[in-house]
Design a protein that fits this description.
This protein has 2 domains: 149 residues, HAD superfamily/HAD-like (Rossmann fold), CATH 3.40.50; 101 residues, Hypothetical Protein, Haloacid Dehalogenase-like Hydrolase, Chain: A, domain 2 (2-Layer Sandwich), CATH 3.30.1240. The chain is 35% helix and 22% strand. The protein contains 10 helices and 14 strands.
Length: 260
């Protein structure tokens, strides 16, 4: 079973509930492997390793950087270096704040910008403030555009896909985050990676998520589960729909669909 984190495995307040932890342990008792994937950086998922007893690879940046339970890199898919500056410029042209993730660094232009404090609290480490992103092009795992203006976000997402085509993956991991990664860094590719690593048919993998970027893993897996807090579009893309992340949706999905 492969799970998204924010909006899925944790509550809106980023809490991992006791029932969610117990559900993961029940999966293990039933010989079901459990893995996580997220737009978060690796360090932003480190706090989940101990309570969930994770031993499977952790797919950060929507699969852009896969690490083990000691945070050592297994595989990386960076944004093509020649596209980093154009992506940053495109996001800026739509009035989005821009964040760049390179290695273990989270780079921002304004530490007081939208959602910076919230993100720092979520991932448990602060960003590094830079004057500009000049020269930051090697080893970039993810570029994120941030805005609470949903119209701007929709237009920026469409423009990124139109301008860069198959050279990048552009998807919203939250209504206010547009993530641009390497085209091989998407949650559908994470399903394929786990399938190959463990010798499992993709049909034997269950996936659960709440955002449009989770639809790519829904399409590659044998069982897909959308959260009750997902949009109607995301719910239509899944085979099953569970309750919301505020109503133990993850644990309920494990009980009702996977272990059942």
């Amino acid at each position: 079973m492969l799970a998204d984190v924010d909006g899925t495995l944790v509550t809106q307040d980023k809490v991992l509930t006791d029932r969610a932890v117990e559900a993961v342990h029940r999966l293990r008792e039933a010989d079901v492997l459990f893995a996580i994937t997220s737009g978060r950086p690796p360090r932003g998922m480190a706090m989940l390793i101990e309570p969930l007893s994770l031993t499977t690879p952790i797919a950060a940046f929507n699969g852009g950087l896969i690490v083990d339970d000691q945070m050592a890199t297994i595989e990386q898919h960076a944004v093509p270096k020649e596209l980093v500056s154009p992506v940053v410029e495109l996001m800026g042209s739509f009035g989005l704040a821009v964040w760049v993730y390179r290695g273990a660094d989270w780079l921002v232009l304004d530490e007081t910008g939208p959602h910076v404090d919230r993100e720092a609290w979520t991932v448990k480490f602060p960003p590094t403030t830079v004057k500009n992103f000049d020269g930051v092009d090697e080893g970039v795992s993810k570029i994120t555009g941030v805005s609470d203006d949903r119209d701007k976000m929709a237009k920026a997402t469409e423009a990124a896909r139109a301008q860069f085509g198959q050279h990048v993956s552009a998807a919203q991991s939250q209504p206010y985050y547009l993530d641009v990664t390497n085209p091989e860094a998407n949650k559908g590719a994470v399903v394929q990676y786990l399938s190959g690593k463990y010798g499992l048919a993709t049909e034997a993998i269950a996936t659960i998520g709440d955002m449009p970027n989770d639809c790519l893993m829904f399409a590659r897996s044998g069982m897909s589960i959308a959260m009750g807090n997902a949009s109607a579009e995301v719910q239509r893309a899944a085979r099953h729909v569970t309750t919301s992340n505020e109503d133990e949706g993850f644990a309920n999905a494990v009980d009702r669909f996977v272990l059942a």
